[in-house]
TrEMBL record:
Designated name of the protein: Phage tail sheath family protein
InterPro entries (alphabetical): Tail_sheath_structural (IPR052042)
Region span, Disordered: 447-496
Biased composition (Basic residues): 460-469, 477-496
Species this chain originates from: Stigmatella aurantiaca (strain DW4/3-1)
Amino acid sequence: MSRELLSSKVVVEEEEPRVRGIPSAPTSVVGAVGLAERGPIGQAVLCTSFEDYQATFGGFTPDSDLALAAMGFFEQGGSHFWAVRTVHYEDASDPESHTATPAAAALTTGGGPTPAVVRGTLRPPFTLANGQRLEVSANAAEAVDVVFSGTAASVSAGRPGPYTLTAGQSLRVRVDDGRDVFIPFSEEDFGDITQATAQEVAAVLNAGLIGGRATVEAGVLRIASDTQGASSRLEVGDAVANTVFGFAGGPQVGSGNVQSLRAVELAEVRALVEAAVAGVRVAPSSLGALQLLTQSTGPGASLRVQGDAGSGLGLDALLHTGDASGATDVLHLEARDAGAYANRLEVEVRPPTNGAPETFDVLVLEDGAYRESFPNLSSAQGDARYVERVLNDERTGSTYVRAFMVQPDAIPDVQTVALSGGADGLVGLDDADFIGSEAGRSGLLRARRSAGPLPPPGTRARHARRPQRHGALLRGGARRPRLRRPRLARGLQRHGHRLLRLAGGRPRRAL
């Protein structure tokens, strides 16, 4: 029958029945959490080969089985390995509370007058409270207040208690960018579930909330996020929320001039201080701590920082003055990833390759071997070879260090500096650091939420949100494995590992 329609009509074509196949999905997907030499902390990264893993997380370390697990997985035919690097967290629900620190150094220039500098003793992120302030006085001028503000997203019940509840009812709550949490109500939680008081409801909610809290203020039930700042989010929604409690529908948003008061970044401090105080700059020190500097130099430059936010930022309240001559930090260097591995890095400054004035070369060394070279860099922000822009470029920049200009337009002297101060953050490591937190989206909970649909070929899926269907665990045991890959067997036995357990979508097979 012709398929060409010359006029409007209904055409019926009969075809032989066909069996439509169901496309199969790869099942060789593993998620693993462990210690690594380097790499992002608390983020699930997809690796499709062992070389891919090494490029992101480094090589073997005496404290970790993660690299060994990745090598064994790929040698056994695996194709998609989701790796999460973990360290010790002071608070598992706060992803910024990890104790690993990046190594840092500073390129300097000497001989000229120096600015007045207030050097901090703490590295970001900083923990502050709503309304705390800095009083900054530069060059004997009147002090200017810099206020840090942040309020949590919250919602209050529109109906007073007591509340008529039914056993089995639940309240849906979502805090920040976490998942929906359904908090059930049962008869044993109340003296009389049909006459539930606001205090009883708050107690039940607090037992199930992640990253938030319920309070009763003047008899009114209130739910709030633990995050104070512009990134705070809260949503309470379902039929129970509206009909029983009278909570407002839709997401509630926090406010403030920082994203989160419990994790204030140096860039946020810089933006607030430099916008409010003329003649003062904010930059990281050679150790990565906060420091404030005057733009003017010499003995006439002075700087004093007071206020209740000073202690949270690690700043003293003394008067600091500039000098007639001395070494001045020009460029702050920081390892891209936290960890002690970066203490092996050095950065060398050489005269420019092309001999152009006001330019210089930067080379990065690891264990004494040259790894990267960036010729003919400039300290002028408008230049195409501006050092910050070149070194920090995500595609063509350094894979080892990041650069932050401290003294604009200044040229660092020819020198070689070693990065120092990097720490792996393993002191106090316990099971909670591996298991993670739903609120902090770390550990196994990060791996389970990240290993989802496979990405198209040639791409790297980073933050898929569907649950993981396949997982992998490594643990010690009482018997030695019989591996058909001798390289893996020797590696396992040399490092004292006795049992390798892999669980995945494929049937188990003898290793």
